[in-house]
Amino acid sequence: MKISYNWLKQYIKALPPPAKLAEKLTMAGLEVEGIEALDKGIKGVVVAQILSVEKHPNADRLLFCKVKTDKGIHSIVCGARNMKAGDKVALALPGAMLPKGIKIEKTKIRGVESEGMMCSESELGLPPLQGGGGIMILSQDLPIGKDFTETMGLNDYILNINVTPNRPDCLSILGIAREISAITKKMLKAQKTLGKAIEKGKDIKKLVSISIDEPSLCRRYTARVVENIKVGPSPEWLKQRVESHGFRSINNVVDVTNYVMLEYGHPLHAFDCNLVSEKQVIVRRAHEGEKIQTLDGIARVLTNDMLVISDAEKPIALAGIMGGKESEITERTKNILLESAYFDPSCIRRTSKALGIVTESSYRFERGADIEGVTRALDKAAQMIVELSGGDMARGMIDKYPRPYRPAAIRVRLSRINKILSTTINRKEIEDCLERLGINFKQVKAQKREDAVWGATPPSIRVDLVKEIDIIEDIARLYGYGKIPTALPLARLSAVKKSGVDLIREKTRDILTNNGFLEAINYSFVSPKLFKITAPDIDSGLKLINPLTEEQSIMRHSLVSGLLETLRYNLNHNNNNIKVFEIGGIFATRGKETEEREMIGGLISGLRHGEAWNVSRDVVDFYDMKGAVEQVLAGLGIVAYTFIAKSDIPFLYPGKAGIFETNGKPMGIAGEIHPDTLQSLDIKQPAYIFELDLHVMMTAMNSQKKYNPIPRYPMIVRDAAMIVNREIQFQELYEVIKGVGSKLLEKVDIFDVYYGEHIPEDKLSIALRFLYRSPERTLTDDEVNNAHSAILENLKNRFGIEIRGEEA
Amino acid sequence: MKERLLQLEKAALSEISSLKNKEAVLEFKNKYLGRKGELAALTKEFGKLPPEERPIVGEFINSIRGRIEERINNLLTAFAQSEREQRLKGEKIDATLPGRYLALGKRHPITQVMDEVVKIFSGMGFAVAEGPEIETDYYNFEALNIPKDHPARDMQDTFYIGEDVLLRTHTSPVQIRVMQNKKPPLRVIAPGKVYRRDSDVTHTPMFHQVEGFMVDETITFGDLKGVLTAFLHSLFREDTAIRFRPSFFPFTEPSAEVDIQCVICNGKGCRVCKGSGWLEVLGAGMIHPMVFKAVGYDSERFSGFAFGLGIERIAMLKFGIDDIRLFFENDVRFLRQF
Questions:
Q1: DSSP result, B248-281
Q2: Neighbours of A187 (CB within 10 A)
Q3: Which of B90, B122, B146 is the C-terminal boundary of a domain?
Q4: What is the pLDDT of residues A423-468, one digit of tens each?
Q5: Chain A residues near residue B253 by CB distance under 8 angstroms
Q6: What ipTM, to 2 d.p.?
Q7: Tens of pLDDT, residues A167-193
Q8: Does a structural domain hold residue B320?
Q9: Residue among A483, A517, A521 with most chain B CBs within 10 A, to mutate
Q10: How does DSSP classify residue A373?
Q11: Domain containing B138: what range?
């Protein structure tokens, strides 16, 4: 809300300076977000009159003028040609300041002295005239020598106040003034009321008839009529006022309705009375499908839950939101019907949302207007219209007010105030606050003798004061939050234990960052294209009804989509070696249900050790990624899992992918991204991903660490290199080895895997190292040989393996 | 005999000083002290000596051998030493080249700040609670005293998934979920992702929030000030100036916005604080009786405060980041910095 400082001065004597005032308002809950000096730093620019315009002796494109101010006659060289002798202009004298810190000095232009500058609109920081160019020509009635900013009403400040939704009463000059009065204890200046003498026209009842069909949606409707007016441009001061508050100046009728709304906060509307069919005004619900063209020129189709102002035939306004084009005030308008009403906030808001129109009027009505302030605004506007555009105000007003406002008293307890605020405010201070807030109060009987209780009746304008707590807040506000004592609460101790989910997140972050992974956070929503990479069925996705962009329109189904986007982004910025992980939610629908799961995902691509002068330049492969996962699982004590190679995960490389399973449940996937997928994303280097389900991991987690004794007896090592069919997976060999069940076998390590030259094409060579040990004694060669050959025999029998070398 | 021995010693000692390397020394050693060396040759004549001279000459021979050996050993040690020095010099590396390391990963700056916030509150006995990111209108709005058609809904532009299903706009629904399931006393914080339909230099459609609340029989506005002051002094500097000013949130009353003295300009006024010297960092207030009513608490008996803060904003202030979108671009050159 923009608020003119000068305008406030009309209400409050000895108003604090703008910066001080802004701080007081901010600390009372009306946050001032900015103060704009309307003069934009202009100083020393005065109204002057041109006496003569001659050609510059040394330049064809320049003119030489004599210009008069109260200080004398000044010689001015000027490049513009739009002025003539007698015109009044804005003259910047030497030493004057213009916006953006430009300083005007005496200069010589082509050999002729110029004692200042005649300014254009844009040089004065004003919007340039249409088709403009040239200097600003001022109105003839401005006195010569007067300060330009003052005559233009620019010696003012506009406070930009963030009015919270609970305070519609502060959406006006009067409302802010009332607040300042409450905060600073300065009295509001009394304002003039409408004199009866001004009503010189016909009896209003003979001119129009008004009825409310929906008293629940329109609790009050008042109107006045002014006849024989002359619609035209507004005077400068009015134009300036409405424009500095962000309105476009339209004419001397519409500007008045806006001016009064700014001053009192109550929205008004003026109809061209001659265009109201049968001079009948009906407040009713719109018929389903009924149409109206609103002032903005758009044809609107209405529904039955919207409220309209209608004449005998058709809607002439969307109640409380926007008038109709047909009954608009134009220069041909002679008679006007001025409306001031109270509309139901919810109804206004629903209509405004449904039609997508937000106006200054709807903004105020949906927050709650002052039902008792309706006629004050109406009177003020009618009076101003008569003053500015002539015309005769009809006698009397129409005031349809079926169920007048009956305020309810709120019980306010002194004990409660002090309990909530931890203060020791006394009765007198409370009553002082209530008084300053314009709240009527009466002390009533308290349950406890030491307590005090009031019946408090807030003014009708304070629609936010309904319950005791509302009054307590206002008292706290006036008392000052700063004065409320700061204390630490006494509370019972309690042990704070980390949840399993939190433990997994924390450990995973530790392990992966130790392993060189950077943590990424991607948006939870992705583009349909990215979504389809991991979930071919787009219908399983949760779509946003109102996304900001197509790129962020569907909730991710997998972390992989975001990680691929991270890779693509980084490759596009020449960051080619990527190791990232993310922990976050993924989403899906199941019929009507939505499903949310938390996942841990990772992606690696590029050089294993990055770019450095002293490391190998190896590129990462599948096993770097799988190793990272294995480390995470080991770190979390997840041991009971298997990795099953899979070739049917659509976005993964058929022979280089698989799933992690625990207790027969899938726990995650891992693999190389399918080349087609990479190509579709224009990614030109291989990438490896994994994604684990945090909740499944939790079921398999064993965070209890247990000590294993350090072996006291030596181990005995047996190596075996074997030629194996390439179809056979290590996992199968391993199962068989374990299946033999030798108690002496402590561990099997793989120390080489080879295929290529010297090995048949369908085979590979795998070299295993078997470690034998007993916790109780030193083993003999015979014992180990027996165990070892049993294992090898089993491998031979099961897979037809050829053992190439057996060494001790 | 003694004469010849002395001559031998003299010749040996004069020869030894001209030896240039280890090989020459060994040769020399062999020549004089070897089994077939000159000293050995003289020793062979030992038998010809009268028995009474033998011990004297024997001792004399040994002392000559000893002296020569000592010189040889000294020389060998010296040669070995210089040889090692020579070798070490040759193995010199450029020690100013950077070292080799395995690059460490980093937690996301948001995670780091989130962890710090959670840690401070954990220290004050606040337990962590979580809730779904996909919420119902009831938990996100209705139960928090934001009815349908209320203008307060404009304060948070919402992403919808269905008519009453939405992406939570704050972590406050967790407050409702916890209070529905537990009775006071409660000290809880709820960190998490939230979503608002907004995008510019200071807003992203997704961001992180920590909501916190405390409910008991005697919780006051003074307690709210105390806990949040302690928190902010722990998160920022101990002497950071803090102010509480009235504001409006539908689910708290009285409501406050909490400002800290600008950490960039120390309150002098700069671009970040828009010249005011203050930075808004928290929203807070006493839990509204309507919220207690929604969860079936007696607001005459229990009172409490609640607060919420945006993690991105804190991270931007802490690290001097001027564009919030950097957090979600995941440029590794950005992520590595924290």
A1: EETTEEEEEEEEEE-TTTTTS--TTTTTSSEEEE
A2: 10
A3: B90
A4: 999 999 999 999 999 999 999 998 888 899 999 999 999 999 999 9
A5: 469-470, 472-473
A6: 0.88
A7: 999 999 999 999 999 999 888 887 776
A8: yes
A9: A521
A10: G
A11: 109-335
